Amino acid sequence: MITDPFQSSIEQLESAAKFLGLSREIIDQLSQPQRIVKVNFPVLMDDGNIKIFVGFRSQHNNARGPYKGGLRFSLQVTESEVKALSAWMTWKCAVAGIPFGGGKGGVVVDTKQLSITELERLSRAYIKAIYDVIGPNKDVPAPDMYTTPEIMAWMVDEYSKLVGEYTPAVITGKPIDKGGSEGRTEATGQGGVYVLEQLSQKANLVPQNTSVAIQGSGNVGYYFAVLAQQLGYKIVAISDSTLALYNPDGVDVNAAMEHKKQSGSFVGFTGASQITNDQLLELNVDVLVPAAVENVINEVNAGNIKAKYIIEMANGPVTPEADKILSQRNIISIPDILSNSGGVTVSYFEWQQNKDNQKWTKEEVLNKLKPIMVNAFEEAWAAMGKYGTDMRTATYVLAVKKVVDAMIK
Ligand code: GLU
């Protein structure tokens, strides 16, 4: 059972296309990225040797605006993965109603093996290799897995040098003092929590009685956990890539993260017992939040999922096979292109601020983010009823329609 994310993205498009009655020509156009760039670029390592790295930038569709989407630094990066992720960005921007298309990039690298100076040289060298295909009105990258605001700042600096002018709007997710937006770091998690609140209204979930298990504690999982806990939701489990913490009475997320910061891992944290990531996914909870990597809920474990609701904060955490099993079992999964669209939405706000030379307060940012997330959720929920289908297909129908309407045919 090897699920190719690109294959999944095509299957998801095909099921939405049936509802919209799209022609084969349109489906074929939307199945593939409009352009994919592969670069092999040299980086000077600290030992004086030059190493060649492989990077990609996939530009899926720009009918609704410049390509938009993150850059991932990971050994798991493949052409197929960035192609899928770029398509998901096209749908995500359409769901949120922000004027961008979809793009995604990455470099095949384990950042843990690099010194900080090597990481900076690699980030700059990647931008040098792709700078002619990106730009504020062309393609606007951002952070994704294992890339940070600091990396974005190096990249903007490199791009600005190459084009000969200060160009902060070429990349979003920058540090606040380097053209970034207030609220961007927590935006994806915050957007997911707005979705959780909407879902709670529909499903009559009272925060204090609602148990939530979160897979992942990176930027997305961490902020989701902390912000949901602040609202009173019971975070009974949270994990990193090696293990999960579980306490049926609730894990103190901040204390657990502090422990990890001090000791390097969750091991030895006394406020919870240790379980595996696989066990976390199968916990008997109200809401399951996969906030790490692709394909974690698949045909092997979908039958064992006990949560009634899933909020997909990772990109592509549920495979199409698992989707079928979940909907047969009446488990509602709020799709990634809706649940995690808060990040790219605040990226849009950052881009707007850069273009207009403005600085918005965090309150302004959150006041603009919330209605976008609420509307996206309400529209998709209503479409689920209207089309008599699952939440993912309903969301895709709305998104694909917006993109097709914008295409010059
Ligand atoms: N990497 C994030 C995502 O997958 C954010 C992309 C962006 O801000 O452009 O949605």
Explained architecture:
The protein has 409 residues and is an alpha/beta fold. It folds into two domains: 34-181, Leucine Dehydrogenase, chain A, domain 1 (Rossmann fold, 3-Layer(aba) Sandwich), CATH 3.40.50; 185-339, NAD(P)-binding Rossmann-like Domain (Rossmann fold), CATH 3.40.50. It is built from 14 helices and twelve strands. Strands 9-8-7-6-10-11-12 form a seven-stranded mixed β-sheet, with helices on both faces. It has a five-stranded mixed β-sheet with strand order 1-2-4-3-5. α7 links the parallel β6 (211-215) and β7 (234-239). The longest helix has 26 residues, at 362-387. The mean pLDDT is 97. Glutamic acid (GLU) binds at residues 68-70, 92, 142, 144, 172-173, 315, 340, 343-344, 347.
Number of helices: 14
Biggest beta sheet attributes = 7 strands, mixed
Radius of gyration: 20 Å
CATH topology-level name of the largest domain: Rossmann fold
Q: What is the arithmetic mean of pLDDT?
A: 97
DSSP helix fraction: 40-55%
How many structural units, i.e. domains?
A: 2
Strand content: 15-25%
CATH architecture of the largest domain: 3-Layer(aba) Sandwich
Succession of helices and strands:
HHEEEHEHEHHEHEEHEHEEHEHHHH
List the ions, cofactors and other small molecules found in this model: glutamic acid
Assembly of the depicted chains: single chain
